[in-house]
Amino acid sequence: MLIVKSVNELKEQVGVLRKAHKTIGFVPTMGALHKGHLQLVSRCVAENDVCVVSLFVNPTQFNDKNDFNCYPRTLDKDAALLESVGCSIVFAPSADDMYAPEEINNVFAFDFGGLDQTMEGVFRPGHFNGVVQVVSKLFKIATPDKAYFGEKDFQQLAIIRRMVRVMNFPIQIVGCPIVRETSGLALSSRNALLSEEERTTATFIYKTLSKSVALQSGKTIAEVKTWVTNTLNATEGLRVEYFEIVDGNSLKSLTDWSESEYVVGCITVYCGKVRLIDNIRYK
Ligand code: PAF
Predict the structure, then answer these.
(1) What's residue 125's pLDDT?
(2) For 193-230, how does the pLDDT look when each residue is reduced to its tens digit (9 = 90+)?
(3) Are the C-beta atoms of residues 228 and 207 closer than 8 Å to each other?
(4) Which of 73, 153, 179 to mutate to test the pocket of ligand 1 (most atoms within 8 A of CB)?
(5) CATH number of the domain at 2-176, please?
């Protein structure tokens, strides 16, 4: 496995692979890898000649400096895990190499077609501009045939699909199911920041979402939203930031179950100081 730390070196490597007609799969990550990431990487390894994984904590997608500073960084451990699942190239650039100085502070503006007007887009202003900024750069550098994203970041996945469409990237976006602990807790790099007690408390998020799926036959969308929010807020240590039930493609909030055939509930909950996101499919 090759560890590449500069943009130019990755471009050179990709050039060699392209000349040899190799297919390239790509998994963008911010490191602090867990089994959820490794699932994406294993699929990428299985479906492409070469698997490239980026490890880059992207400064432009953090609206909260403290969140950026606290984000776990575990490069050596990540590299060892990636090697164990057959990754071919790890790309770990510096922010100075990825961005010209004027790009860091100038807000990159992407037309989201409304996909950013809800949920994470509302509570993390500027976040998705930073995501599109870095992912579009990574796509231009790595030029993958396929790129793999987790469905845990449901809104991000919808936005990346739109970005690929409007920017005409010849890349197939592969969405991969959420990986959960046996307790139901969705795997996330942020789980590393939870105390043992918080980790137990956090399991109520998925338990509550799962129970709510059975409620859809007898309750309206508004009632299910209230039930989920109140149930979680009544749990000591949890505070719901938002819970929306949306159409899975447009991300528009729904008021009636019959409005869509693809209905997803998306939630963000603070467990102590740690911000956790999750989602569940209703239909
Ligand atoms: O999902 C993430 O970890 C990040 O948003 C991504 C896609 C790697 C861009 O920095």
Answers:
(1) 93
(2) 999 999 999 999 999 999 999 999 999 999 999 999 99
(3) no
(4) 153
(5) 3.40.50.620
Q: Atom 2 of ligand 1 has which residue's CA nearest to it?
A: 29
| Nearest atom, ligand 1, residue 153 CA | 1
Write down the domain spans for the chain: 2-176, 189-281
Cα of 8 vs centre of ligand 1, distance in Å, is: 21
- Domain 189-281 belongs to what architecture? 2-Layer Sandwich (3.30)
Q: In this predicted structure, what is the pLDDT of residue 107?
A: 74
Question: CA 125 to CA 107: how far, in whole Å?
Answer: 11
